[in-house]
Amino acid sequence: MRVYNPLKNSWSYEDIKLPLRTHSENLVVVPSFFDMHTHVRLNGGEDYDSLEKAAIAGGFSQVLIQPNTDPLLDTSETHALHEKLSARKKVTFYRTTSLFGKAKPDGKKILCYSTDGIPYSYRDLVNAFRSQRKALVMDHSQMHEFEGIFYEGTRTELPRKPITNEAVAIYRTVMTGVEYGFCKFHIQHVSTKPALELISFLKKTFQLTCEVTPHHLLLSNESIDTVNKKVNPPLADVKTIESLRDAVKNGVIDVLATDHAPHFTKDQDMKFAAFGTSNIEIAFSAFFTALQDLPLVVEKLSITPRKILNIPYTFDSENFVVLDLNHEFEVRSKDFFSKGKNCAMEGMKLKGRVLGTKLHGKLVYWDGEFLC
Ligand SMILES: [Zn+2]
């Protein structure tokens, strides 16, 4: 079996015995993935059981939960509840904690702060930077002061916001954080060209990383025809897709992250529908289809997130993912293990998929089925 080791940037052939047959001739073994941007809903929506299955089917052994759960991940009590619900799982569930709450990163399971899914003002930001422990801040960079479901240039009667909204918010967060002694920032789901240009500039001086989602690498605002394509940040124009892909290749974008945002039901009215797309199961396929570069995808889906978050990782025969790079399929979210069937890429043809996942020495998933 071909093995790609991104830690050494090397290819090898190894005798890995898989109990099941496959007819594909383009299988590759790579390290399991780490998702820096996952949502769990609880209260009848996605729970840790369904999310665990969806993550494994997507090749993820570790994920980082964002704080906009109900109730918010911002107190030690809520963190204790999540710790209990996610204990004894095959997937390790790390958590962020709200930048505006009482709980603090602990370096064990609570890895950093996040603003994701929490509308905040400049005052909130300043107050948080004045009082919080100096730690990594993940930022959903948005000027919430200005309403807008989509970006300018999108054909819609619904409220639109300037394309520069994201870059202005990134500058505000980073410079304010630096003023109050914060030194590590991670910008979530970058979606616009001005944001890429600003990040590239800020990286020269500050410790700054960023991520992009599969939907922003594959879909433009011209394709918005269902509520499943209502995402936040919104989809931009076709040219932006090229800029985002280039930024992954030239290193301005460090991480590929899913922003898996499952919704059990979504209002069918675009104005009232919740934001988000259910992604985690097809994330690898979408990234590989968009970028067509396996070492690049594996590095940014497996190695870089762990480096940024200081999660030790060794690639061995006990933990890996088997990819079938020849497999072509059409996305059908009704087949997802996730409770969220709201996939923005519904019906799209993707190439390459996760065939099997081995965790803690056991092959737990193979060809659409769980083995134990
Ligand atoms: Zn998110």
Topology:
Layout: E1 2-5, E2 10-13, E3 27-30, E4 33-38, H1 48-57, E5 60-65, H2 76-85, E6 92-98, E7 110-114, H3 122-131, E8 137-139, E9 150-151, E10 160-161, H4 165-179, E11 184-187, H5 193-202, E12 207-212, H6 214-218, H7 238-249, E13 255-256, H8 283-291, H9 294-309, E14 320-330, E15 349-359, E16 362-366, E17 369-370
Helix pairs in contact: 3-4, 4-5, 8-9
Structural account:
This protein is α/β, with parallel strands linked by helices. The protein has 9 helices and 17 strands. The chain is 26% helix and 23% strand. Strands 4-5-6-7-8-11-12-13 form an 8-stranded parallel sheet. Helix 5 links the parallel strand 11 (184-187) and strand 12 (207-212). Helix 3 runs parallel beside helix 4 and helix 4 (165-179) packs parallel to helix 5 (193-202). The chain starts with a strand and ends with a strand. The site of zinc ion (ZN) has 7 residues, from loops.
Secondary-structure element sequence? EEEEHEHEEHEEEHEHEHHEHHEEEE
Give the spatial strand order of the biggest sheet.
Answer: 4-5-6-7-8-11-12-13
Q: What is the CATH topology?
A: TIM Barrel
What oligomeric arrangement do these chains adopt?
A: single chain
Q: Quickly name the level 1 CATH class.
A: Alpha Beta
Largest sheet: 8 strands, parallel
Summarize the structure.
The chain has 372 residues and is an alpha/beta fold. Helix content is 26%, strand content 23%.
